[in-house]
Amino acid sequence: MKKLTIYAIIVLLMASCANWNSQQKGTAIGAAGGAAVGAAVSKGSIWGVLAGAAIGGTAGNLIGKKMDQQAKELQQAIPTAEVKRVNEGINVTFDASLVFNINSSNLSDSYKEDLLNAIPVFQKYPDTNILIEGHTDDTGSDEFNMQLSEKRAKAVSAFLAQNGVDRSRLVEKWYGETQPKYPNDSEENRIKNRRVEMAIFANEDMKEDAKTGDL
C-alpha cells in the first residue's frame, strides 16, 4: 500500500509538471521527497538513480542550472546521441547503430569518436559522477548476456579513463537483457537494445556547494 501511495504521488506530481522545464521538475520532485521518489522506481535504472540522487529545494535548483548547461554542451559535442535532462542529472544514450555488433563488447571507431568528443565536457565538470550501464538484446542465454553487458559497461569505462576522465568518477553496472529499452521483436529494436547508457549526476562536492550557495 505504501508503494502504491508513493507511486500515486509521483504520477500526480509528474502530471502537474507537464509544462515545466527540467530544472523546475527537479526542484519540485526533490522538495516532495527525493528519497521517497527514488525508492519507488526500479532500483538500478538510470531514471531511478537520477531520481534518487536529487536533493531538491533551492540547492537542487542550482544543480539543475548547472546540469542544463552541461547537457547543452554534451548535445553539441555528440549530436548523434540522445541527451536528456532528468531531475538533477543527465541521461545520455548513444546512437545504438554506432556502438556494438551482436555478441560483441568491442567499441566501434564511430563510438570511440563520440566518446572522445564527449570527454572534454566531462572534464569541464569534474564535480559530477558518471554511471555507465551495459545492456544487451535477447539474443543468447541470460548468463551470456549478463556477462556481455558487464564487458560493454567496463569497455566504455576503461576507454574514458584511458583518455583522461578521472577513474574515481566512473561507476559501472550491467543488466544483461533484463532492461530492454524497446521490445525485442525486430532486428531494428534489438540493435537499439545493444547499448550503454550514462547517468551524470552531482557528486558530494557539488551538492555541498549548492547547499551553501557557492555553486
Automatic annotation (TrEMBL):
- Sequence ranges assigned to domain OmpA-like in this UniProt record: 86-204
Q: Which residues form the signal peptide?
A: 1-20
Protein's cellular compartments: Cell outer membrane
Name the domain of life.
Bacteria
**InterPro entries linked:** Bact_OuterMem_StrucFunc (IPR050330), Gly-zipper (IPR039567), OMP_bac (IPR006664), OmpA-like (IPR006665), OMPA-like_CS (IPR006690), OmpA-like_sf (IPR036737)
| Pfam annotation, one family | OmpA
* Assigned keywords, A-Z: Cell outer membrane, Membrane, Signal
- CDD domains recorded for this chain? OmpA_C-like
What is the protein named? Membrane protein
Q: What does the record give as the organism's lineage? A: Bacteria, Pseudomonadati, Bacteroidota, Cytophagia, Cytophagales
